Amino acid sequence: MIKQLHKMGVKSGHMYTCGLASIALAFASWAVSTKAEKAGLDRADRWGIFVGEWAPTFFAIGVALRMEETHRELDESEMGMFDQSESTRSRTHAGV
User: What is the per-residue burial (b if ≥16 Cβ within 10 Å, else e) of 52-66?
Assistant: First the structure.
């Protein structure tokens, strides 16, 4: 799933931003619910908690995407080094 998100162009920064937005939205939904609904503080708390639970998920996906981005960068830089050394090794081992 993380590789697919990375291929689609989703960056770790996008997920971190979503996590922060989720925290702000949790507070906003709690505040609006306390004022707009007559259901009481319990209902407002549930709204805030419901939206606030998204934040850890967004942050976790952001960390996983960051690892994927770093892994890809390392693979690409090492591939260039290994391509050169493998061609040199193959000539050396083949007696060329």
Answer: bebbeebbebbebbe
Cα 49–chain centre separation = 21
Q: Nearest-CA neighbor of 3 among 61, 54, 79?
A: 61
Residues 6+ apart with CB under 8 A from 8: none
Q: Please report, for residues 17, 44, 63, the alpha-carbon distance to residue 26 in angstroms, rounded to integers and kept in the order given.
A: 14, 10, 21
The model's pTM = 0.67
Residues 6+ apart with CB under 8 A from 48: 26, 27, 29, 30, 33
53 Cα distance to chain centroid? 16
User: Residue 82: pLDDT above 70?
Assistant: no
